[in-house]
Amino acid sequence: MIREIEAFVPGCEQEERDKAMMLRFLRTYDDAYLRSNTMAHMTASGWIISPDGRRVAMAYHNLYHAWAWTGGHADGERDLRAVAIREAQEEIGVRHLHPVVDGIFSLECLTVDGHEKRGVYVPSHLHLNVTYLLQAEETDLRRKPDENKAVGWFTPEEALQASTEPWMVERVYRKLTERAKPYMK
Question: What does pTM read for this prediction?
């Protein structure tokens, strides 16, 4: 993963700085892929487009009370593309899913506020996130009640409007929407 992140060409200052931070963290902490590192840990997300390239899949996440992409913790897995695919399959039920482009699509260091998870307090921390551009069949979506209240397909514009997390819209989803345009119709 260090080589993949090193090879990633940042598309903006945010990614340049986040890339440097991720590489420093990965080289410093042996437990960077585990949630037991309560300061920060690696995660992976999928920006999922429909086969016709006109829509984006999102879930209304219980934890964040917002429409958002899919993704989750590495939990020791170092193949973050496999993590992004697994999380999309688990969170929104997609079975037929494949990468649209080889390699990393985007990088983000994301803040996570302290919260309760299964009755245990999780302190505020960072998700050092690697994003992949994925494609799924539109008929595949299903909700996972323990993680989300709803799932759906949105046009890119609707996706930006649906999310109620201003920082995610401005710094992440807008960037992903722009970057995915060559693959969308």
Answer: 0.94
